Each structure stands twice: as structure tokens, then as C-alpha cells.
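Folded chain entry —
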Amino acid sequence: MRIDDISETRNIARELARKYSTMTHEELNVLENILEPMRFAKGQMILKEGEVCKNIYYIEQGLIRQFYFKKGKQITEHLGEDHTIFMCIESLFKEEPTSLQVEALEPTIIYAIPKFRLEQVALHNVNIQILYRKILEESLITSQIHADLVRFETAQDRYKRFCKLCPQVILRAPLVYIASYLQMTPETLSRVRSSTLLE
């Protein structure tokens, strides 16, 4: 790890602490020591189907999509942007191969938080326990919001809500992936976008 990586890792530890839990200087040191910086080029796979997800990932900069195959088609399950968390939660906790894949849609800088090491240090650090819990809560809430969006909202309301929730993703992600995430065809998404612009 280079010197600039070390100082940047410290900044990420502070960022995570600000977002999820207040921490002492010692706890920040502990968190910093388990963070693993990773860099991915546009189009590079972060996690492939059949691999076991061993980390929680924090996106410092970039854009990712989680997807799976159903009847030969790619289905987008999640689109993640700067300063957000992602994981393959079932694979992470069952320690089984994932059916999900994760791809970088832009050049992306990620910090991996290994689950095993996080759980080890959380045993001795209350604020790191809180951080771990709040990260899991955020992930579950994000999944619930998406599930409710596609179950209960019309196509137009789905798109409007997603624009409010993730304006940067709307601007940066390819429309085909946004359409898949919102469970509509690209043609429907184009119509919805056009009618929304006319309002």
C-alpha cells in the first residue's frame, strides 16, 4: 500500500465513522487497519457468480451494478454510487457462492470491509458494533425500498421516486440498467422519461 493510500484509508475510516457511528481515536485506528482499498476499471467485474462474498464494500468513488441472470436475461438488482455500501448479503452471511455479479460501470474506488475481521474487532469495540449494525440496517432498508417501489408504484411513480432517491445514478447509469432495476422495458422507461420532462 502506498503512502497516499494509507492517508486516504484514514480519511475513509473517518467518513464511515461520521456516517454510521462516532468513534474514539483508537477505534478509528482499528477500523482503518481492516479497510482494503480496491480499484476497478470501467467494465471490470468486482464479484462473479459462484464466488463467495466475504466483504462489505464501501464505494468511495464510482458506480456499480449488482445483477443476476434469469432465463438468459440480465436483471439489475442494485445500482450503487459514491459514498454508499453494497454487499451480496445472502452469500456474505451463509458463506455460500453467490448468484449475483457486481460490475464497475465507471472507474471505481472501493474499500472492502472483510466481514470476518469486522466481526472480530466489533467484539471489543462498541462503536464498531454500532457501525456494523447501522450498515446492515441501511442495506436492508435499501432492499425494502426497492421491493416496495416495484411492487406498489406505477412505472411513472417508480421513475420519479428513483430520481429523488438517486439523482446521480439517473444521470450516470445506462438507461438499460435503470429500466431493469425499475422492472420496466427500456421503451417504457423512455416514454416515462419523456412524459416526466413535459410535466
